[in-house]
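Please, structure for the following, as tokens.
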Amino acid sequence: MGIVVVEVCDGNAITTVNIEEIIESEFPEVAVLMNECLSFCGLCRVKPYALVNNRRIFGNTPEECLDKIRVAIKEELAVYK
């Protein structure tokens, strides 16, 4: 498992992009976990989102959310450098 964990609800709009493949290929130290539900009822219907080390990251589009996830991952990894 990676030192940064990205959790994604599989009913979320972020899954329209292959987030698992994209993030894990760009950041080998990151683990992407696909879950049935992250218990943020309704949020997945409103905006694409994910949890990065338990911090909610969301955007208006899947692409915007993915960009914000990348920024959050870089912030988390900076702690280890």
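The helical segments are 19-26, 43-46, 62-78. The chain has a mean pLDDT of 88.
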